[in-house]
Amino acid sequence: MSSSFGNNIKLTIFGQSHSKGIGMTLEGIPAGKKIDFDRLYSFMERRAPGRNAYSTPRKEADKPEFLSGVVGDTTCGTPITAVIYNTNTRSQDYDILKDIPRPGHADYTGFVRYGESRDYTGGGHFSGRLTAPMCIAGGIALQLLAEKGIFVSTRIASIGGVRDEGNLTEYCLRGYKSGSAEGLRDNGNADTEMFRNPGAEGDFPTISDEQGRKMQAVIAEKKAEGDSVGGVIECAIFGVPAGVGDPMFDGIENRLAQIIFGIPAVKGLEFGNGFEAAEITGSQNNDPFYLENGQVKTGTNNCGGILGGISDGMPITFRVAFKPTPSIAKEQDSVNLTTMEETKLVVPGRHDPCIVPRAVPVVEAAAALAIYDFLV
Amino acid sequence: MSSSFGNNIKLTIFGQSHSKGIGMTLEGIPAGKKIDFDRLYSFMERRAPGRNAYSTPRKEADKPEFLSGVVGDTTCGTPITAVIYNTNTRSQDYDILKDIPRPGHADYTGFVRYGESRDYTGGGHFSGRLTAPMCIAGGIALQLLAEKGIFVSTRIASIGGVRDEGNLTEYCLRGYKSGSAEGLRDNGNADTEMFRNPGAEGDFPTISDEQGRKMQAVIAEKKAEGDSVGGVIECAIFGVPAGVGDPMFDGIENRLAQIIFGIPAVKGLEFGNGFEAAEITGSQNNDPFYLENGQVKTGTNNCGGILGGISDGMPITFRVAFKPTPSIAKEQDSVNLTTMEETKLVVPGRHDPCIVPRAVPVVEAAAALAIYDFLV
Amino acid sequence: MSSSFGNNIKLTIFGQSHSKGIGMTLEGIPAGKKIDFDRLYSFMERRAPGRNAYSTPRKEADKPEFLSGVVGDTTCGTPITAVIYNTNTRSQDYDILKDIPRPGHADYTGFVRYGESRDYTGGGHFSGRLTAPMCIAGGIALQLLAEKGIFVSTRIASIGGVRDEGNLTEYCLRGYKSGSAEGLRDNGNADTEMFRNPGAEGDFPTISDEQGRKMQAVIAEKKAEGDSVGGVIECAIFGVPAGVGDPMFDGIENRLAQIIFGIPAVKGLEFGNGFEAAEITGSQNNDPFYLENGQVKTGTNNCGGILGGISDGMPITFRVAFKPTPSIAKEQDSVNLTTMEETKLVVPGRHDPCIVPRAVPVVEAAAALAIYDFLV
Amino acid sequence: MSSSFGNNIKLTIFGQSHSKGIGMTLEGIPAGKKIDFDRLYSFMERRAPGRNAYSTPRKEADKPEFLSGVVGDTTCGTPITAVIYNTNTRSQDYDILKDIPRPGHADYTGFVRYGESRDYTGGGHFSGRLTAPMCIAGGIALQLLAEKGIFVSTRIASIGGVRDEGNLTEYCLRGYKSGSAEGLRDNGNADTEMFRNPGAEGDFPTISDEQGRKMQAVIAEKKAEGDSVGGVIECAIFGVPAGVGDPMFDGIENRLAQIIFGIPAVKGLEFGNGFEAAEITGSQNNDPFYLENGQVKTGTNNCGGILGGISDGMPITFRVAFKPTPSIAKEQDSVNLTTMEETKLVVPGRHDPCIVPRAVPVVEAAAALAIYDFLV
User: How many alpha carbons lie under 13 Å from residue A258 in its C-beta half-sphere?
Assistant: First the structure.
């Protein structure tokens, strides 16, 4: 079913951008799990808008109310439902969208799929706002994975072609190897110092501060032009033991792909060296095995920690391509679906010139849900 | 479940490389559909090994036997099961693999996941041979889609960094626009001349013959070196009407991704302009709407025909990255899992130096199954 | 997943008896369906407690709030979520249940399944209160079925061994045949007069008023004794065309059974003549075919309108056995799970001496959801 | 999907009565499980026709061939597929059924559902023959449950109104309590003497030999009359620990019901005292808890070992009503679907006058699959 995810857990996401509320039901979480709500809210805060220059100035009070499934701060084993009530929505901003679909948005396809009765305000069920409930579920999954020694780290790999430097896996393991974690940012899901996200400066998770500043400059520039820009997020999942996953249609790649492509604006996904693997030879690409303290390891990790859909014990790595925010200030060509005439459209409202920074915790949430689904 | 795919249809694939048989059960196909078995077998023939210089010289008699679900050449509405009996398997070739996993294969992860009792011979259930049953199901889906005016075209976009030229969508529509289909190859699923695959010369589906020859030269070169090479397959699905798909976790991208990552050796997947979208601006990336004969169209197709998980009526386009065949003739480092000592391994048997050409129909099969699942 | 139902629709029920709220998410309902909320609330009212002598005097304000999936009174195609907020719950009544499980309830099995962290108050997720969200979903399904000319009629067939008279199918068709509907009660889901529930007197849906009064006398008697009593509900679904359903595991019986056994206190289910079929011969039991106005009909309906899991066009009929309310005022033997000593228990709170009357709309809701799932 | 069952395992059944083969795919069985094939075949033998006076004289060679999922006698973790090839089918017997549906069979509903292209020969996919693959899967599940100390015992509770005597649970535990197992029959799934099926005399599993003889006499009598007769099978599952199952839609009753109603001819299902519970009071029906050697037990087992969908540690008990074989020698009324005229039909072929004896292992198979699905 379209708005549900999971085999062993079952996440259902409901709501439209401007409906009374949005939220999620998460089934399959065992009883007796303590949820650290402060940690969860601070994780969700990373997705919230209006926190800095490169995100939209809209304010949302996205604190979820838990209707069921927890008693106090502990899960009771039955479905967990949490709601974020929508307030202060300016639906009238969207009146024009009733007739004129925004290029790059799902307005037109939603119209064809659901007809006149679709909820077009604010993008309806297609809105990026629906990633907030995914972060509720994913934030819980991150905590449950941390219990098992599994951590998710994420960086912005590029924005508008400006690339970060360094190697995410190496970077995140740096604290582990050196015993120091300087320059690593707590991503709200780790109990230890060693697995942290990049991002010494502010909220911008890159390994290289300089490249991070350049990326922010690109965003600022595009914003000034009334335009937007896309980027790539890279993710590494540490601590997944070898042997997790299934062959064929329910491997780690398949499950991650199903949820990652559920994040709006995602257009590409690659595991390990991904598209680069298509350009090199087998002798370059294969990850030879060796032994380290009696453990089977690979020296390289071109396969991204996955062989045959199943984890090999190395970090699981993938990269996600986000397209530029389709809502831009520039005038665009569109069509009036009522009069069936070509027209010009200036998209109303204020929008993120780049959704990549806010998408970072969403990717972490998705990654955590897919992996936890195998391990619950 | 791991070896099952589909919401409205249900494909289950069974078998190991060297088990008595491999096959598939396909549920949900309506009664009364005529299957053109000759067309199906000739489609499957495109996946068969041993047909040319760049594929393995092993011979397989991959003609499926249909056990149920068809009466004569017509579906009867209940599950269709077809089996390909395995004959002439040389399991002894694989004795060494009991202890020593091949780098880049699922031997090690299969061992950890299933233990001593796994079927390691020939890669077991992880073998590329299991794509044959996917082609049975996909070949049927292609015929059922053709009935609805939907066609799948595929080309090899690159091999080892050598890129094809031209634009697949433009190329495939060329016959449609000009009324001529010169240089287009029938891909076994089209009733008309206009939607054909690239590939004037032999079986090598590229738009540019010259680039195709260069790719084949790269394969021959790597083969001579005892090495292998990867590549990218590009696919376009024509004729899907606007409004097909669902938001969030069951959109076209999600469903295609689940099955595409079920093809062995796939490491990346991108829709439309994919990773390129991450490098450009919204004003460049958005596909503005216009009217053509009263139909809503977009001039560009950066979104790959999908917005919010739902088709917009333009061709659905995606690219799939295949890693190089992990089985190479060169000696590699590995580990003996019984003695737990590091060792050298020379992979036995003969193998495709590049699986990309044989993967072309598999991608078409997967594409057809995912799309047909929405439209059955 | 445990709290989800449906193949084409997907119903998820969440909440515990005393959690902040209980509710449901219903996916798969098409866009553009008008919901008559007054009709829905009056349908739900039939399940509400405290309406008469034989139901518990507790008052619930069970009016659901719709958070998503509807715009105004019309569905928009994406998941519908509705919540009933729990207020005025007297959790302290249930303190004793932390240690001492009530016989006949799920207190003990819930403890073993979920451990100390289970929500035992008010029965938690096992509470009969969770049938309220099922009635939200089912009430919507009843309206959508009525659009298709499909109606669900239900009567109390017996209480504590006192049996109703007459034949439900004949009775419900009486108005249709005579053009009069005297003595038939509107069950809140029919647009016409002809398909109504039994129950001329008050809310007690029997064909025979006299037998209905006798049943109510039995309930009153058991209540006075501090005891409770069970009963049987019979249901007939009119208007399902022939050919609905699937063989084997997803036939009409299978789907109805899955949801019917999801209603607390159900211990038996039979279709058509059910257990009686086991006592007679084939020549007595087979329903011979004949023609009526060019339509294939059967003169009898021993099969309950279902052959091979698929409807034959006759009314679909089934009977559901409900056990007596396990909560009784009499002292019972139990065990203290903390001290592990045998003990006596007097169940706190006030409870229905017979849940059958309130279960009538719940059976209708379940029936509607199962049938609509095939026809959406 | 219609022909698939299971949440954690996935059983898919394929084939028609007269197709090239029938069979099953069973996913989710762990690797490394030894299957005792002799035991499995002898279990399947109990379902085979032609073994005695009250079953059809047709001969089937129902020995399955395993195509995949086992290496030698051991599972390898990936899907298990087994096929029974159909031979010696007399399709011409069924030519008349192309036009004239047999009362009580799915011929008419299959025609409406699937149209002209349905496979009507021998009942197609609706045939009782499809219970053979269910027995392959169920026979494996029985062996895997026995490993966990779980055993399934079954008796014929009644035939045509003639009832067996005694209490199944008491009877099966008799050997356990007395240390003797006289008069208990090995049902092919137990490693110990203590959990056996009733049935001292021949294959007719009743507790009372005398009642068993009376039942056989009824069958013989109805056969002589060219008629058939139904019956009830009772089943008890021993050894399921407390805490297995889930609330609401995936409880033990729901899962058992889904698969039990997948057996052809089943018209009713009740758990514990079932419909009897509807006639008594709460104080009679509740099963009070007591302690036995520090274990929580109930003295009675009216609930059939299930509270709130979850096992309470007592034997799980249920009864299944089978209608009389619809194929009888007597002339019946039917309709010619081609000419649309009323007609008389004499059903061709030879058929069981009572399918209940052969259904006993099928009920065991279904029970084992449903329970194993929770415990895999």
Answer: 28
